[in-house]
Amino acid sequence: MKTSLCVSRAFIDHCLALLNENKLDTAMASMAKYWASDLCSVIASDAVQLHGGWGYMWEYAVCKNYVDARVQSIYAGTNEVMKELISRKIVS
């Protein structure tokens, strides 16, 4: 989990550097959004599993974080749309 977070942070930092230089393209931005939102969902799901039944109770932050993580894959375009944008760049 920690390794995935570190890799994700490094990739997003790279994308931010590209953005600051006006070199960030749609495919790279889509990859960053897809990767980060997917990883967020996986980690939140693992956290719910670690908490057992308490992970599903609204009184605990882990449940709220899980719900927030699930919606991240929908905001600003679903992950399926991101995959399509990435694939267009690959085949062009």
Automatic annotation (TrEMBL):
GO terms for molecular function: acyl-CoA dehydrogenase activity. GO terms for cellular component: mitochondrion. Keywords: Flavoprotein. It comes from the Eukaryota. Residues 1-90 form the Acyl-CoA dehydrogenase/oxidase C-terminal domain. This is Acyl-CoA dehydrogenase/oxidase C-terminal domain-containing protein.
